[in-house]
Amino acid sequence: MTTMVATSVPATREAGWTKYAAVAAKVALLLLLLTALIWPDLSGIKGKASTARLIVYPLGAMVLPLWWFAYGRAKSKLHKTFPWHADLLMTLPWLIDLLGNRLNLFDTIDWWDDAMHCILWALLTAGVLLAFVPRGLSRGLTAFVALGFGATAAVVWELGEYVAFVRHSSELQTAYTDTLGDLTLGTLGALLSGLIVFQARRTAN
Asked: Which end of the chain is more exposed for a tag (fewer CB within 10 A), N or C?
């Protein structure tokens, strides 16, 4: 009994911390989206498919809660309670990207865009793996799934950027090279994420 109490308390504290962090991230994202609606000139996303972002970002941050409400809470074999840690990881990429645009970091820091394509894809892929991928997969299969999701998501993102604003902007001349770099960095971030998630799960077991 003593052992059970000792091990359950840290787990409860961790769940509470990630829950509050995930909720705070969603609130911050909502506030940034509202300010972009009220003051579009100050949002940092004007001329960068702002309308599409205002739709896609909240949907991206709500994918896991919507899935849990519609299906996961009754039929999920991976989670007995809502996976707040995965939800936080799946929310942060949208928040960080919007905040980076709001602070004009993408246009003022040369390496920021490249770093974000690697880091944000790693966070998003980690969240997806923790939310939807079984624990029992080998390192190779976990990396394969991570690559499959990460690379596909990166392609969809780049296609969306091209259709939404790149083809009509001054970036068109360098878009091919930039897109190849973004796809490479996003895929690399997804692969690293898969390896880290596998190792973290293995250590936890």
From this structure: N
**90 closest CA partner among 112, 123, 117, 53:** 123
Cβ-contact 170, 118 below 8 angstroms:
no
State residue 205's pLDDT score.
72
* 116 pLDDT above the threshold of 90: yes
Residue 113, Cβ density class (10 Å: 0-12 exposed, 13-18 middle, ≥19 buried): middle
Residue 121: closest CA among 98, 144, 152: 152
Distance of CA 156 to the CA centre of its chain: 14
The rounded distance, in Å, linking the Cα atoms of 189 and 131 is: 18
| pLDDT at position 129 | 97
pLDDT at 120: 97
Q: Which residues contact 130 (CB under 8 A, 6 or more apart)?
A: 83, 85, 86, 89, 197
